[in-house]
Amino acid sequence: MRVLIEGCKNHDRESQRLLYKHYYSFAMAICVRYSGSVDEAKEILNDGFMKVYSKIDLYDTNRSFEGWLKRLMINTAIDYFRSQKKYQNQTTLEGHDQASKISIVDELSYNEILMLVQQLSPMYRAVFSLFVIDGYPHEEIAKKLNISVGTSKSNLSKARANLRKMLKFTTQEVYEQYI
User: Fold this and answer.
1) What residue ranges define each of the domains in the chain, with the CATH number in brackets?
2) What is the rounded CA–CA span in Å between residue 11 and residue 24?
3) CB 52, CB 69: distance < 8 Å
4) In the Cβ-directed half-sphere of 102, how many Cα atoms lie within 13 Å?
5) CA dihedral defined by 76, 82, 83, 86, rounded to 10 degrees?
6) What is the rounded distance in angstroms from the CA atom of residue 143 to the CA atom of residue 55?
7) What is the CA radius of gyration of the chain?
8) How high is the pLDDT of residue 81?
9) What pLDDT, on a 0 to 100 scale, did the predictor assign at position 92?
10) Residues 78-119: tens digit of each pLDDT
């Protein structure tokens, strides 16, 4: 890996291609959590790798490259979120508010959960991903997203409530297929 990183520092295209190929899945998994679609995730991913190549000299070789790449991808996703913020509307789940006595499925696949998270509004999705998946505290989320700590906590609560509603709605649809 050091050879690829050194190659990237020397602007070697083949090293850049191989680094991209090697870390594509790792970085894409991060980007998908913060995006509303796969196309948006790919855009964030590509922007992130452009930052990797332009900032590779800042990487401390005594530290984990994966950790550095993860932080860079998360920050790129947040930058993308901020740039798109003025074009995004808050969405609600009033149409999904059907009460159901069906219990939530205990085991959902990662992809099923990810699909539900992607349906959250951009702000809810960002706060949920930063807090629940990546473990950022509310204070740091507030700074990254330029919101108050209270807003971060409120958005997390609303994201969780919306996910519960979506899970109930999804579970009910599946259950009705077998009746």
Assistant:
1) 2-87 (1.10.1740.10), 94-177 (1.10.10.10)
2) 19
3) yes
4) 19
5) 160
6) 22
7) 19
8) 84
9) 41
10) 988 888 765 554 444 443 333 333 334 444 566 777 788 888
